[in-house]
Amino acid sequence: MLENVQFKPGVIKEGTRYSNEGGWYDSDKVRFRSGFPEKIGGWEKRGSNTFQGICRSLNQWAAIDGSQYIGVGTNLKFYVSEGEAYNDITPTRKTSSLTNPFTTVNGSTLVTVTDAGHNAGQNDFVTFSGSGAVGGVPAADFNKEHQIVTIIDNDNYTINVATSASSAVNGGGSVNAVYQINTGSVDYTAGVGFGAGFFGGTQTGVQSTTTTGTNNAGSSTINVVSTAGFTVTGTILINEELITYGALTATSFTSCTRGQSGTQDATHTAGAIVQQADTFIGWGNAATSLTDGQQLRLWGKDNFGEDLVFNVNNGGVYYWDKSGGVSAPAVALSAKAGADGFAPTVATQVLVSELGKHVICLGANEQGSSTQDPMLIRWSDTENPNIWQVLNENNAGDYRLSSGSKIIGGIKTRQEILIWTDTALYAMTYSGTNFVFNFSLMDEGTSILSPNAAINANNGIFFADSENFYVYTGSVQTLPCSVRNYVFNDINMSQRYKVFAARNENFNEVSWFYPSADSTEVNRYVTYNYVERTWAVGTMDRTAWDDVGTSVTNPIAAGTNNYIYNQETGDDDDGSAMTAYIESSDIDIGAGNQMMFIRRILPDIYFYGTSASQDMNIIVKVRDYSSSLNPPTTDQTFTFQTGASNSGSTGSQQLYSRIRSRQAAFRFESTTTGQQWRLGGVRLDMKPDGRR
Predict the structure, then answer these.
(1) CA dihedral 151, 156, 161, 165 (to 10 degrees)
(2) Are the beta carbons of 647 and 641 closer than 8 angstroms?
C-alpha cells in the first residue's frame, strides 16, 4: 500500500533525527519556497579580472551620468570597479624623496630599500619613480608598485624585483616613493594586554628558516639554511628558547646571547624551526596595541551622492570624489579639498544619514584630539562632509553613548540608525532641531556578533549576536530558530568578526555567512526565509555580499579566490557541478514497534531549466535504534532519471527496493551540471514486517 510522506518545511537540527520525525534534518545549497525544497541558483564569475587580498566589503551605486560602480574593500586595498576593471583608489599615507635608496645582492632578486622613518609594515604597497638601473637590475624593475616583503627596521625594508642583480651595489639616484595606507590582516587577532594572544607570547609577521647541523647550548653562533629576510640584529626563537643576536651572515646568526626572557639555553638539532621573534611577548609582560597590519581589515562605507566615503575599522576615514575619475586615489576626509581640518581621523565605522545627509563617524576621535574614543559619535554639518567643527551656526555635532565600552557597528533604516555597542543597542534618530540627532537606548544586554552581522530586509533589521538571531522592527525580537545550537556551536568564535549578514530579496531570504569551527575563513552559511519562516544551512566560501541594486541585476558576492561572482545565475558552480542535497529525519511505522519493509519508492521531483536529461541520487539510510550511538547508514542508493522528453515535467519512474529497518531517512542529492529541481514529497510502498 502506498504511503504519501510529506516532510515539514525547513531544516530542523535542534532535536535529534528521531524527534524531528517527518521533517528535514540537513541541507546544502537548498532553499524552501512554498514549503518545498529546491536547489538554489548557481553562480558565475563577474569577469576574468581579479583583485588583491580577501574582500570584506561590497557596495554598488550609480552616478547621475549613468556610470555604475562597485566598491570593493579587501585587507590589502580598496577598489572602485567600473565594468570588469578594478581601479585602485587606496589612499596614500606618505611620500618620500630618496637618494640612492636601493641596495642589491649579487645573484638575488631581493633588494633592500632605505627610507628613514618609513613606518611601513610587511605586505604594504609602495610605488617608486625616477630610479635608474642598479646592480644590473633595469630601471623598469624599480619604477612601479611593489609589495614590501620584510621589515628590517624602521629605516630599512626589502622588496622583490623581476631581475636578479649582477653585483652588490647601492644606487638608484633621486627616487620618489609613494606609500599607500598600511595593509591589514586576513585574520582577526583578539585583544591586547595581559593574557592576550597565545600562552607564552605572540608572533606576528614571522620570518623563518631551519637550523643546519647541531647547535650546542652556550654557542654564540647559530647555523641555519639562510638568514634572508631576518633583521640585521634581533631575537630568534628556536623550539622554546629565545636567543638575541648581534649580527648575521648569509647562513648564521652571530654574537648570540642564549636563554633570553627566562627561557632555557638548549642544544638544537638540524632541521629545527628558527623564527624571527622581535615581537615576542614573554610571560608576565603585557602585549602592546595591535598595528594596522595585525588587525582584521574591515571597511565601513556609504555613498555621499555620487561620491564614496569609507573607513578602515578603527582606522582612518577617507573620501573618494567621483569627479576625479576612477584613477584618482581617495584622500583623508580631514584633508579633502574645502575641509575645515576638524574631521575625524579615526573611526569604527562611517555612514551617511538619509535625513540631513550628515556624514556620521561611529567610535571617532574627539575634536582637537587624535585619540580614538570608541563610544563617541560625531557628525558633519548638514549636506556638507567638509564641516566638522561644532559651532552655533552649523549642525555639526557629537554624542557619547553611555552603555558599553566600545561601538561594534551600525546600520541605517528608513527612520533611524541602529548602533550596537558591546552591551547595548541604541537608536539614533534625526530631529532637525538644535540637537540634530536624538539617541534612545532600545535594548540593554544585546550586542552583535560582528560589525557586519546585521542586514536591512523586509522593513526590519535582522542581526545575530553570539547566541541568537534577532529582528528589530521598533523593538528587538528573538527569531525562533530550528538550527540555532547547530550554527552557534559551529562558528569559529576566534574569527567571529568575519561573520556577515546578506540579503537575497528576490527569494525573501537573509543569510549569515560564517567560518566553521574547523576553518579560519568563511565557508558556511545559514539562511532564514522571513516570509515562510524556515531555515536552511549549507556550505559556501563567500566573504562579502551585496543584493540586487542599481548596478547589478543579481546579487554579487566575493570568493576567497579574488573573484566577484554573479549569484543566482544558471545552475552551476561557475561551469562546474554544484552538489546540492536535502536529507530527511527518520520515519518509521507505529513508533518503531515493528520493522518496516519498503518495496517501492515513488519520488515527486520536478526538473526544469534545461532540455537535457537530468538525474538525482536518492540515498536511503536506515537504522534500528534511534540512539546517537547508532547513526543511520546507507542501505541503498538509487538514480532517479528523466529522459530528454520529460524535461520541464514531473518524472514518472518508480524505484524498486528491498529495504528492511525500523527507521529510514532519505537524502535527495544532485551532483552534475545543468540541474535545477524542486522536490515535492515521496510515496512509499511499505508495510509492517515483523518485530525482528
Answers:
(1) -130
(2) no
Question: Alpha helix locations (H) across 404-496?
Answer: 484-490
Helix (H, G, I), strand (E, B) or coil at 253: strand
**CB 97: neighbour CB atoms within 10 A?**
11
Nearest Cα to Cα of residue 9 among 39, 48, 45, 35: 35
Residue type, 50: T
Q: DSSP assignment of 551-603, as one string?
A: S-SS-EEEETTS-EEEES-SSSBTTB---EEEEE--B-SGGGTS-EEEEEEEE
| Highest CATH level, class, for 92-180 | mainly beta
Q: Tell me the C-alpha distance between 632 and 673, whole Å.
A: 28
Q: Report d(CA 54, CA 561) in Å as an integer.
A: 8
Q: Which CATH class is domain 55-59+292-538?
A: mainly beta
Could you tell me if 109 and 162 are in contact, meaning their C-beta atoms sit under 8 angstroms apart?
yes
- The strand order across the sheet containing 24-28 reads 24-28, 580-584, 663-670, 615-623, 633-641
Euclidean distance between CA atoms 163 and 29, whole angstroms? 47
pTM here is 0.84
Measured CA to CA, the distance from residue 245 to residue 268 in angstroms comes to: 16
Calculated CA dihedral for residues 318, 187, 522, 363, nearest 10 degrees = -40
Question: How far apart are alpha carbons 215 and 193 in whole angstroms?
Answer: 34
| Distance (Å, whole) CA 353 – CA 545 | 22
Taking the C-alpha atoms of residue 238 and residue 251, their distance in angstroms, rounded to an integer, is: 15
Residues 2-42+578-688, CATH architecture = Sandwich (2.60)
Residues of the chain with CATH 2.60.120: 2-42+578-688
Q: What is the DSSP letter of 507?
A: G
What pLDDT, on the 0 to 100 scale, is given for residue 292?
Answer: 53
pLDDT of 613: 75
Q: Say if CB 280 and CB 198 are below 8 A apart.
A: no
Task: Tell me how far apart the alpha carbons of residues 41 and 33 are, in angstroms, rounded to a whole number.
Answer: 13
pLDDT at 432: 79
Neighbouring residues of 173: CB distance < 8 A, sequence distance ≥ 6: 99, 100, 130, 131, 132
Residues 38, 607 contacting (CB under 8 angstroms): no
- Give the type of residue at 677: W
DSSP state of 90: P
Range(s) for CATH 2.40.30.20 in the chain? 92-180
Task: Give yes or no for a contact between 233 and 247, defined as CB atoms under 8 angstroms apart.
Answer: yes
Answer yes or no: are the C-beta atoms of 517 and 523 closer than 8 Å: no
CA atoms of 497 and 546, how far apart (whole Å)? 18
Q: Which three cell numbers stand for residue 617?
A: 541520487
Q: Please state whether beta strands 655-661 and 633-641 pair in parallel, antiparallel, or not at all (unpaired).
A: unpaired
Helix (H) and strand (E) counts in the chain:
2, 54
User: What is the reported pLDDT for 198?
Assistant: 37
3-class secondary-structure state, position 408: strand
E strand or H helix that includes residue 349 = strand 349-352
Numbered ranges of CATH 2.130.10.10 in the chain: 55-59+292-538
Spans of the chain below 50 pLDDT: 192-204, 286-288, 644-652
3-class DSSP assignment, residue 510: strand
Task: Match 525500523 to its residue by C-alpha cell.
Answer: 662
- One-letter amino acid at 380 equals S
